[in-house]
Fold these 4 entries.
Entry 1:
Amino acid sequence: MILTNDDGFTAPGIKALQTAINNNGIIIAPETEISGCGHQVTTKRGLKLQQHSDQVYSVDGTPVDCVRLGLTQLFPDQEWVISGINAGGNLGADIYISGTVAAVREAIFLGKKGIAISHWRKKPLEIDWTVAARWTAMVLEKLWDIPLPSNCYWNVNLPHLEPGSDDPRIVFCEGGTQPLPVHYSFDGERYHYQGEYGKRVRQTGTDVDVCFSGNIAVSKLKL
């Protein structure tokens, strides 16, 4: 399977993802962090691919570029694209902004299967990537056995719990609709975004509510 992200090929999240699948995946990820790029693609210039080891490649482009090169030029026989583990949630309307989720969506467009995995950050807590890898392995073990229609993909969001907490439950729920808060301050010249992620709408039973309540939110999204 191909592993990618939008945090860059050296990010701790993608290393945790590789750990979760027992180091079986091939990393093809952006050269640098490019969060929030959505489904952006590069068509006006050439893309530089670098191989760092037998299992690690980087591309000077977007997550979607990485998936396109991976599935059409390098490893066309791979059936799965797993994207993450993103350092930050991709809940509700985030899926339209997220490069992490866009990478998986591109895999579905190309006739493959995919799972996006993100970890909500609840400041001032720091993400424990060892725990994130363990939770991810738990989720993947469950998802491998569930049939996935050809035009659908999984979006997974891990909660941010206090150190030493019990493992969260895996909850299948609605996703992809709850908006982000849209607030700005104006300094006389420019508008500065002031929306607080943790204060977004929490409709009961949606991925935002499930994840913010301390559980692993798993949503089946459709193209």
Entry 2:
Amino acid sequence: MSDALTDNVLVLVRHGESEWNRLNLFTGWRNPDLTDKGVIEARVAGRMIRDHRIKFDIAFTSVLKRAQHTLDIMLDEMNQPNVPIVRDAALNERDYGELSGLNKDEARKKWGESQVMQWRRSFDIPPPGGESLKDTLARVKPYYDSVIWPQIAQGKNVIVAAHGNSLRALMMILEGLSGDEILKREFATGAPILFRLGADGRSIDRKDLLPARSLAAPPEDRVV
């Protein structure tokens, strides 16, 4: 992949650290904003993307403010504040149901270590009242196929600022990954991934842009 990208480019970015990431809480569809560290991560992500000289035609994000705030900061850093933004709940984080708002240690005490780990690490077992990653994929895939991909197919450059699990669902689509394979992937907060896509809307090339080690999210925050 060259340093100067022109068209059929999709950039995925997980939001910067949120207030609940810092507190080690299950977040899901709850709506905390970024921490100061999260703001810095978003700024660094914007600068990394700017260095690749990509001009975006449209941006997509969820209806949750941690992702929206991250996108706004990145576009500002790229000096592209007028890029049209589409916000849709299809790109929301996985809904953690009854786990939402709980500290992960509290959840383990209530349901047991093995049960909580099963909810976190399985592809198709949802927590009580929530979604599995399979459920998340079921809403992300039709949105990608009918809304995001048509923009790229027209030769437009697209950026998506979203969440760990909605991005895992997108990664499954782009790279043809299985449920077992995607569970091994981690998404650091504020670390852009650049894809060039083929005529079928699937990845033909990717480049990971990683932030400085001091700004990367710790492992516990990356697995949500």
Entry 3:
Amino acid sequence: MLEIIPDLPDHVLGLRATGTVTADDYAAVLVPELERMLAAHRRVRLLYVLADGFDSYTRGAAWEDAKVGMRHFTSFERAAVVTDVDWIETGVKAFGFVMPGDVRVFDRDDLDKARAWVSEPLSSGALEFELIEDEGILILAPRGPLEAGDFERMAGVLDPWLDDGHRLNGLVIDAEHFPGWDDLRGLMSHVRFVKDHQRRVRRVAFVSDDRLLHAVPSIAGRFVSAEVQSFAEEELDDAVTWVRQASAG
């Protein structure tokens, strides 16, 4: 059986599993509540508690779980799984890294910690960005190793604007040096962000004196449809002018 956990922030879906979880539980409880929340929030968080007395999933429930996961793969920015069931804990830890959001496992004794973690604000991260809507220019300024949350925050601003029919004339990346990623999840989020957005930007300008970043245009030009060009650190204004000119093309 699945039941909703009350008294959570409105962007956090709380579920408690007891006994045997069936496909009907997904259809009657999880799916309607998730779709209701996604109508109000672009991304949600999940607190999933396998309570004392949880027994198993039916085959139908396992299939529904897979379908929900595939359909809403990018809809969860955080998920806290609370369980003392060894095989579930092992599975989540083994495969959680492939999820776009942050996934953590907590023991049942740490339910309060799980609730607090899944409810807390995301880190402001190390990526500063500004979307100049009337010119269709996105300016990025990484100030440290990139985190998965950086791309979630940026997508939360950029995607609704793009969905309204706009297109990016240009992307300006102003970086003193290549910052790298905070962890594997940050790298994977970066790759997904580029894959999902690269066809929606016309020009990309790298502004840096870093040798590695200066080599990016010659490499990136083979994999993305946008024009890519590098500029020295003191040429930021020139880079903005260059991407702005894409609107005249």
Entry 4:
Amino acid sequence: MHQLTKLLATLLLAASAAAAHAWPDQPITLVVPYTPGTGIDLIARQLSARLPAILGQPVVVDNVPGASGNIGSEKVARAKPDGYTLLVQVNTLVMNKSLYKSLAYDPVNDFTPVSLTSWGTLLLVTNPNVQKTTSVALVVAAAKASPGKFTYATPGVGTPHHLSMALLLQSTGTEMLHVPYKGTAGAVTDLLGGRIDYMFLPVHVALQHIQAGKLKAIATGSDKRLAQLPEVPTLAEAGIQGGNVDMWYGVLAPKGTPSAVVARLNKEIAAVLKQPEVAGAFQSQGMVPASSTPSEFKDLMSKDTQRWAGVVQRGGITAD
């Protein structure tokens, strides 16, 4: 029995090595579960423009938006695990595991993490012409004095913007009225118009309005201050422990993809992320390039799943 087990293991290793040697021999598809023009779409298009020179095969982007990324993610989860259909996602993926009780796939266990691609930062902002709260302490004090009076916008229920604010409110024992929108544009319009009080926004969306004096950055959700806004403190500096709400972005493959293929993808993605042109493109969207090993990515997903599940449970949040 022991010899049979060893033989099977040897055959599996040989098959994996053979698959990696032959891979890729056809085009690769990067599924983006959101519309064109998003940060995730930009990541995919940077990879699709540069990986063909390394891999010797075309790499195409397939935008499959809908249901907070679930339609495109499920498509990849159900794809053949051969390394030719990959998912480019944000940490919404692990948040969805707790938000949706009726998913037809497992947002964590049905994928093999390949590599992180970048980190993105969210900023807590307000309209300075309406709210004079210039610090987290003042935001908290105002909210405690008038529970439920103030509003915050998000692009939708269960988005990173929503759960980041939920975490802040839970951490400070405060209440605000959540106003979910169908996307970021409408939310920003009402924030600029003074109809909404607060919002967490990605850096690249908020920066132009901050520089124009139309929005005020109260705190950054990163663990470090931003080079573009060095005067804006982090949530931790403002006294919110465990308040880091950075968004991670990464590439995943269907569960069961050969380890040798995953290793090759991981290596080549890391090489692309080191190219100066890619760093510049990412930074224009408020993202910082960052690769990882598959195991590091898997550990991050596991920790994030537990963290956001707690926020969802405490807040009684559901997207179903």
